[in-house]
Amino acid sequence: MKAHDGFYIDGAWRPAVGRDTIDVVNPADEQVIGRVPAGTALDVDTAVRAARAALTGWAATPPAERAARLTALRDALAARKDEIAETVTAELGSPLAFSQAVHASVPIAVAASYAELAATHAFEEKVGNSTVLHEPIGVVGAITPWNYPLHQIVAKVAPALAAGCTVVLKPAEDTPLTAQLFAEAVHEAGVPAGVFNLVTGLGPVAGQALVEHPGVDLVSFTGSTAVGRQIAATAAAAIKKVALELGGKSANVILPSADLAKAVNVGVANVMSNSGQTCSAWTRMLVHRDQYDEALELAAAAAAKYGERIGPVVSARQRERVRGYIDKGVAEGARLVAGGTESPREQGYFVSPTVFADVTPEMTIAQEEIFGPVLSILRYEDEDDALRIANGTVYGLAGAVWAGDESEAVAFARRMETGQVDINGGRFNPLAPFGGYKQSGVGRELGTHGLAEYLQTKSLQF
Ligand code: NAD
């Protein structure tokens, strides 16, 4: 894994204007594994200019040609699958098997889906006496988090390129090496110079410069609700469009007729995988009072099994944040049935898989996003109570419902204020729209809904 000491701008690696750098740390052993340049507003300006200069040509490229470049990008990512998995493991800390199965594989499927959509999407439609053209929105400023470093990038860049937009990407400071690998794959795929540009750097410097830049038409951001709010305010002043994928506090609702053991085991795995750093994780498990004690036993056993396999969280800062929430849970009266603040290993930013019982809906750990391997189990009295608890946060990103009968689960899911619900452990679908109700975001990613974020319409009347 070699780090580039420049930015990928206008089809080549170019030196940074400033001298500041960011150390990349392996969270499993706390060693510095690389160093990347920290971009300034000047670097961002150079990248945005390159993206603007490339826009007219790329927007006019036939969709079939854009599809061909995306297919080549898919192939380039597939060819580097092992390198990608190793790089994600090195800078994020996720176990290699998870990096291979999820971090490296899902982006390949998403890139493939946009190669196909670019070729098949109707970029023109007839509405009465009008022809409606679906045109690229322009230059996209993409800002991504570290938790699924490559997926977050591909879920923005692939639809943007399919739509005919050009992009400047500012990836998370904790995981810039995966972003550099992605830029190499874009280059290998023969995407024309300036269509995709990468500037690594700090959020409040390079990220903010990108949001404020008048040459950016759309800011597509995934990250915390706090930063999303700030970005939306800045963009609003310039009447700039935003797409925001923000935080979550999703509910896993286990109805009394469900297969309890399955629902609890899958629920625990959902929270512990990626060390709890999944925005759509079902971090609140809702169990009927008659099944509560049995669910606690099952959850504690499932969490203990994870103890050996779990990776570290991304950084020392993140570990402190998660520990702070565990302390707060105890202070507010929740009961630990697995894990706690003690580190399971001497080295690395590890947090034990943690399960809280006796969590009530108003507690901090039931309301705020923890972003670590911490599950809260809440007790409900009846279905209406379960619904009130499930909908009782500012978030609405994802969720799950389990019942003996699919239609019973679906009836409950229809009443949930959230963007995605998995029914009885439904599988991930890379074509299904993903995004939030309420403060979990604005807009959708993936599939045709994700493509639509990067298009604007023009109506011709005849
Ligand atoms: P974060 O908001 O701190 O950072 C995300 C990105 O924004 C990073 O690239 C960062 O450098 C940049 N940034 C920070 N300050 C900025 C500023 N002032 N202007 C412009 N850019 C700025 O979030 P994080 O800690 O990296 O990621 C965790 C958060 O992301 C969690 O809240 C999680 O729920 C959320 N998330 C949401 C989704 C989703 O799809 N809804 C997916 C993954 C993560």
From TrEMBL:
The active site is at residue 245. One of its GO terms (molecular function) is oxidoreductase activity, acting on the aldehyde or oxo group of donors, NAD or NADP as acceptor. It comes from the Bacteria. Keywords: Oxidoreductase. The keyword Lyase does not apply. PROSITE patterns: ALDEHYDE_DEHYDR_GLU (PS00687). InterPro entries: Ald_DH/histidinol_DH, Ald_DH_C, Ald_DH_CS_GLU, Ald_DH_N, Aldehyde_DH_dom. Residues 13-459 form the Aldehyde dehydrogenase domain. Signal peptide: none annotated. PANTHER family: ALDEHYDE DEHYDROGENASE, ALDEHYDE DEHYDROGENASE-RELATED. Belongs to the aldehyde dehydrogenase family. This is Aldehyde dehydrogenase family protein.
